[in-house]
Amino acid sequence: MSVNKQLSDFAEEIIAFQRKNDLTDTEMALNSHVSVEHIHNIKAMREVPEPSTVASLRDYMEHKPNGK
Questions:
Q1: Rounded to 5 degrees, what are φ and ψ at 4?
Q2: Cα 28 to the center of its chain, rounded Å
Q3: What is the mean pLDDT of residues 27-56?
Q4: Which pick of 8, 10, 42, 43 has the fewest CB atoms within 10 Å?
Q5: What are the structural domain ranges in the chain?
Q6: What is the spatial distance between Cα 63 and Cα 1, in angstroms, rounded to a whole number?
Q7: Residues 40/5, Cβ–Cβ less than 8 Å
Q8: CATH 1.10.10 correct for 3-63
Q9: Distance, CA of 33 to CA of 4 (rounded, Å)
Q10: Banded model confidence at residue 56, pLDDT cuts 50, 70, 90
Q11: pLDDT value of position 40
């Protein structure tokens, strides 16, 4: 699978998670400890996220507590 396709899949995963949980980029950033700029750039596919950034976002998405 190409890097662009992987990024697209991860960007889509973030967007779907935000829609499901009614989260803005700012709320996602605060809760996942990843900067808003990184989240914007990942979703726009302007940035290849570092493995630690991916891990932080995935950890938050997998273990998000109820509420925001």
A1: -60, -40
A2: 7
A3: 94
A4: 8
A5: 3-63
A6: 27
A7: no
A8: no
A9: 24
A10: very high
A11: 95
